[in-house]
Amino acid sequence: MSLTLAQRLDRIRVRMSELEHWRARETVQISDWTFDGEPIAIGAAWPRKDGTVSFAASARVPEHWPVEETRLSLNLGGESLITITDEAGNETRLGLDPYHQEFRLTSPRIKISSETVARLPFGEPVRAPRLERANLLWLDGPVDRLWLLLRQISEAVDTLEGHEVIPHLIDIAEAAMRGLDWPSSTAAYIARMSPSVGQQKIWRLPELETAPESLNQGQRASVVAAYDTLIKELKQLRERFPPQGEIALTGHAHIDLAWLWPYRETRRKMRRTFHTALSLMEQSSDFRFNQSTAHYYNQIAEDDPELLKRIVERVKEGQWETLGGMWVEPDTNMPTGESLSRQILYGQRYFEKTFGVRHTVCWLPDCFGFSGALPQLLRQGGMKSFFTIKVNWSETNKFPADLFWWEGLDGSRVLTHTFDNPMHGYNGFVQPDCFVPTWRNFQQKDKHETTLLAVGYGDGGGGVTPEMIAREEQLRAFPALPAARWTKVHDFFEGAHKSAAEKELTTWQGEIYLELHRATLTSQSVVKRLHRKAERSLITAETLAGLAYLMGGEKPASLENEWRVVLKNEFHDILPGSSIAEVYADSANELDGVIADGQAAQASALAAIAKQLPSGSGSNVLVVNPSLDERPMRLTLADGSHVSSRDSIAPLAIAVIDIASLKARPGLSASSSHLENETLKVTLAKDGSISSILHKPSGREALEGAGNRLFVYPADKPRNWDAWDVEEDYAARGEEITALDSIELIENTAHRAAIKIVRTWRHSRITQILSLGANARRLDIQTELDWHDRRAFLRTLTDVAVRNARATCECAYGVVERPTHSNTSWDAAMFEAPAHRFADLSEPGFGVAILNDAKYGHSIRGNVLGLSLLRSPIYPDPLADEGLQSFTYSLMPHEGSWHEGGVREEADDLNQPLLAMAVSDRAVGAWQPIKTEGIDAALSAIKPCEDGDGLILRVYEPAGRRGAFGLTLPQGWRNEGTVSILEEPMRDVPVDGLMPFQVKSWRISR
């Protein structure tokens, strides 16, 4: 009777499974364990499971066991960093997790200790932790190797899907197993096989031998012969069926800085993972391992300096590859351009100082979409290559390339690669059923002969296993599979650049939008607002200190330490809102601290500015404009009163003003149903929504319908990824909140008027204050939420009297245009998309913008401007955004396009108002320490140089225009030329002028 190939493969699998139960020749249990110093038995429950616990024991290898064939087999009940101390007192540290439970020994007498938590790699608690297993085993190496090789042949047959090599692979596997001389003694055989799945199903097993015999020398010789013959026959088949494709393997352990565990646990994950990776390098000189994130190495320097020293040595030897060039792997949708610049600046400087290397590859495998500002910043930061795989997660449209040029807003390009590994993505495995589909999915194989594949357990860390090392060695002999070799990521990209120089590659222009995880623009909005405030606090503090220095004050102090805290909290599972509650408690505390430090630095800088001004008298106020825009004089004074005068202040200017001279711009009027000044007339409907916004200079009605309609969507329950996703049908069940608790005019002065509206929805309260200053061009809607409902999505919608097929959204260092229609599947998929401080819909001559000081999720469909205000998912934080939070958004009609109408300038003013400080001993006057000429530009930073006594002035062109642009410096200061974001000369970039979306920096000194 002839069997099918599938049946023969099933038979091979059943027979080879037997080998696993003979891989240990002998086993000895390790007893006499202690738990936090107290005795504990094997199998016993932990006395406590909170925090970090310690286990300890000692063991002796039986005298007839070769130490090199001995393994320590442990399962302590949770993740651990174990320390094995040998007879000479030498310590070896290794990570213990579900994938790393067997360890080599170098000494017959050892002591074992641990730092253990009752958690699994993805943060899952071990509800009833026990000391599960602690053994020494004498490994039968030939059996172990043959068992692995047969498994790999089985996997290859499965994944090659009808390839003509398959019958040959089955033939040689069958022949190998027929050649085995295998034990059959009843007592030993039953004892050996008792752990198998089939035997464990039996009602009652017979009494088992405690130390069943292993293979004798003749039987073991048959195993060795079978293995050697298989390898020889595989190599012969490889000549007949050569490798199809080539894979560059990089060992990897993606470690989320914080996610389903708090950061303090990540610090332990780093040590466990890094020690494991180093141990594998001792076993294989071919193995290569990469690890990104400057912050991790900086933390290791504090927690385990000896570990960092060993990593530095391996970096020099070429086995350990530091990677990425950034402080962390950040979200790139929400940070400002200046934050992204600092990620690169501080990351590259740290890597260069600590390891003597500067990176040319940006490594962001797991972020949720990518800003079009990145290519320019990467090139200025010394990086010409970019890696991610997240684009393959898009649910609607397949990204058209996986080796391509990515062109940013300004035209800068980086060579980009992504691989599509269906087996856990960047946490790949070394095995045939991972190699074959990864190569098959590589779209640009006609342009370049190799694709990258990162392998190793990740997200929760752990990394590569000893089995993966052994698998790679065996697979070198296999036919038909893609050839795979350990490679440094930088070397892979150098080869890809050579191919790109010879063959034309696809170019992708602008942002890379991920058609998934759109809710990360809104979830955990409290921390998003704190992050926005922290960024702005530091940028403004540096700007003020720089102005004081330009006026004759002291050189500003570096705020790098504060910036590092902000950059850490931009990590791609913190800022997006996809972590547990403990992460956000830590993040809020850290960002609150940065905001306080930034405000203290601002106060100190204002005092330093005042010190440089001429003395005088009177009840005056010192005002500073920290932007490159001329600003109307809008102030909030120390007593909380508002000023909205007819005056203005020049860009980066300082003024001392007599408070009494600050007269309100005329024309402000208000009632409980309207607000009006010289520019806007706002009328409210009876339900508190806005029925009309008349833009008086143009005579245009801004609304076509109603404005600031509040909708809640109580069916915000995605298929997967609760905090990450919002489904496209969320609006199918929407409730407009029209009921009013109260509406009243609460402020009506010559300078400002305001209406307060209070609403209740189910268990939550929404309080909004609509305010209009006498000189305002926008209507501010200050919002306070007291939220106590789960899985509800709160949004504001405004129907505007404007029509355009595309809307403009602010992004880092520029803007991106997005469709307002659903003509194609690509358009339809962009139903929720990121914007920074504004989104605008304009037609020739007129438009309406929605501005904000804390939000990122936007939708613009047809003529409806939508802003997402809050989500309340239950996983991984059941109380996400529960309780109080506040923020402000604004509606702004304008003439002309968004940049002609001053939308960005108003958004700048909303997010960073003018600075004001009462002074009684400074003379009235105005000063402008530094001036700019030419086209409009936006300020990114005025900061102290990293090296030397000068300042770095960084601006960007925000609207896609080009033209002359220059600086006029104070007497005694000189412009030393353009520099990159790494603050190094850019000699091919002219000192004057700006190109579309260009980010340009100058070093200035005195």
TrEMBL record:
GO molecular function: alpha-mannosidase activity; carbohydrate binding; metal ion binding
Domain Glycoside hydrolase family 38 central: 515-591
Keyword Metal-binding: yes
One of the Pfam families matching this protein, by short name: Glyco_hydro_38C
Entries under InterPro entries matching the protein: Gal_mutarotase_sf_dom, GH38_C, Glyco_hydro/deAcase_b/a-brl, Glyco_hydro_38_C, Glyco_hydro_38_cen, Glyco_hydro_38_cen_sf, Glyco_hydro_38_N, Glyco_hydro_38_N_sf
Known EC number: 3.2.1.24
Keywords of the record: Glycosidase, Hydrolase, Metal-binding
GO terms under biological process: mannose metabolic process; oligosaccharide catabolic process
Similarity comment: Belongs to the glycosyl hydrolase 38 family.
Name of the protein: Alpha-mannosidase
Organism, as annotated: Rhizobium metallidurans
